[in-house]
Specification:
globular; 10% strand
């Protein structure tokens, strides 16, 4: 149930804030530093402990076994093990941002918006399907 809540919450965030981005190419340390601005939400899914702690931060409680299984199943997907979701970083928080502040939508090279490098659109990445597959694999109700 917990992972399902996460997937739904992320989907809602992606839909509600289509101008917001996901950073997937930084190091974990770099992503941790970027969250200090308050405009990025860090997801560290790299280990069972990190998986469990990350979900706990957003109110999703998993057992140790669920966290272990979820972490391993998600890692097998090849999706980024850590990433940060931006909230208002490209537009909503900056009234002076050029071109409406929408970075990705103004990128003429749209094929890179879900390639797992740099700044992507969360909804175009493989993260949602990988989280859902991990939940199914681990028997976490979706």
């Amino acid at each position: 149930m917990g992972l399902a809540v996460l997937v739904v919450a992320l989907a809602g965030a992606g839909s509600a804030f289509a101008f917001d981005c996901i950073r997937v190419s930084s190091s974990l340390q770099g992503l941790q530093q970027s969250t200090k601005s308050g405009n990025w939400l860090l997801f560290d899914l790299s280990t069972a402990d990190a998986f469990q702690a990350t979900l706990s931060e957003i109110g999703v409680e998993l057992t140790d076994a669920e966290a272990q299984c979820g972490s391993e199943a998600y890692a097998e997907s090849g999706q980024p093990l850590y990433f940060a979701i931006g909230i208002g970083v490209a537009a909503g928080e900056n009234e002076n941002a050029s071109a409406g502040g929408v970075l990705a939508h103004n990128n003429p090279n749209a094929k890179v918006l879900g390639d797992g490098n740099g700044i992507d659109h969360l909804e175009q990445s493989g993260i949602f399907p990988a989280l859902e597959a991990a939940a199914v694999t681990c028997g976490i109700p979706v």
